[in-house]
Amino acid sequence: MDSLTLFCTASLLAGGLYWFVCILGSAERKGKHAVHLSGGSIAKENVQDNYKQYWSFFLRPKEIETTEKVPAFVDTFYNLVTDIYEWGWGQSFHFSPSIPGKSHKDATRIHEEMAVDLLNVKPGAKILDAGCGVGGPMRAIAAHSGANVVGITINEYQVQRARMHNKKAGLDKLCEVVCGNFLEMPFESNTFDGAYSIEATCHAPKLEEVYSEIYRVLKPGSLYVSYEWVTTELYRGEDPEHVEVIQGIERGDALPGLRSYSDISEVARKVGFEVVQEKDLAKPPSNPWWTRLKMGRIAYWRNHIVVMVLSWLGIAPKGTVDVHEMLFVTADYLTKGGETGIFSPMHMILCRKPESKSSD
């Protein structure tokens, strides 16, 4: 092969790799480039060990059912997946029903705006985002409502990402992010005019614990809305295929255990809330929320190749391929859960803290 042919071949390969990684694989509009994938707060050389540590939690299932073990379990998970989520999905780490004629981005925003509309808060109100991630919902909700949003996440890396995104969006005056455990929040009682959680409280070992904390920090008369991950009335615990799907979702999403839809309102009332409304937003006439997962299979394979190349080149941390493969497998379980109707990620409950109840 002569020098000119070799040069042209090398240039073509380099250009193709750049296009594949930085154009097809780019998520700048979402906030993360493929070449910047990391392990969050985990040192690059420790990512693979932490991935193994994450899976070791499932060898000791009783440990992830206790409050004191949850921070390490969930924090490890989000260190591993946050960059991949941002790169491959976006800044809002949740699902939404597909809307004909609307992009996934618009459908996501509408789903988020509905949450704050249910709270009926005025501009300038102070509301809580319990489990805010990198702040995608927070920014949409602040821009839509004019409310001051305080988000809490257990993961320090997500705090850094959220603050960066808030500033970039020009919303840092309305959006504040705190690193902390939503089972023991660093806020005074009767602080917030409203609260929401979007597919976040599923990480709590006991729903009663997080609902109690949210109840405590809300002002009397204020509303709380949550989109919960649940098994539906179609789930059968004696069906091995159903069990496999639900356990696959739990393992791939850092869940101590999915709850039944019937538990949600019962727990809310137990901690003192009045239940104003309850509805599974995944049910018809809503369009399937899992369509995006099925449509994204080509993108998953493309991204997996990108991750493998970056890992081989030493750009992405060793272990990133394992994490991406875990999320790919989990996407299949989520799709099966949606198609069979045994799982919903958007069982909505709207609650009110009574005016007459004590704040303690």
Structure description:
- Catalyzes the methyl transfer from S-adenosyl-methionine to the methylene group of 24-methylene lophenol to form 24-ethylidene lophenol.
- The chain is an alpha/beta fold and 360 residues long.
- 46% of the residues lie in helices and 16% in strands.
- It contains twelve helices and eight strands.
- Strands 1, 2, 3, 4, 5, 6, 7 and 8 form an eight-stranded mixed β-sheet that branches.
- α6 links the parallel β2 (148-153) and β3.
- α2 crosses α3, α4 crosses α5 and α11 (297-312) runs antiparallel to α12 (320-340).
- The longest helix is centred in the N-terminal third of the chain and has 22 residues, at 3-24.
- Mean pLDDT is 89; it is low at 25-29.
Please supply descriptive tags for the structure shown above.
360 residues; alpha/beta; 12 helices; 46% helix; globular
Q: SSE string, helix = H, strand = E?
A: HHHHEHEHEEHEHEHEHHHE
Helix/strand class: alpha/beta
Question: Whole-number radius of gyration?
Answer: 21 Å
- Approximate helicity band: 40-55%
Give the overall silhouette: globular
Strand content: 15-25%
Summed up, the helix count is: 12
Low-confidence stretches: 25-29
Q: Return the average pLDDT rounded to an integer.
A: 89
- What kind of sheet is the major sheet? 8 strands, mixed
The number of strands is 8
In terms of quaternary structure, the protein is single chain
Distance between the termini: 79 Å
Pathway: Steroid biosynthesis; sterol biosynthesis
GO molecular function: 24-methylenesterol C-methyltransferase activity
Family: Belongs to the class I-like SAM-binding methyltransferase superfamily. Erg6/SMT family.
Catalytic activity: 24-methylidenelophenol + S-adenosyl-L-methionine = (Z)-24-ethylidenelophenol + S-adenosyl-L-homocysteine + H(+)
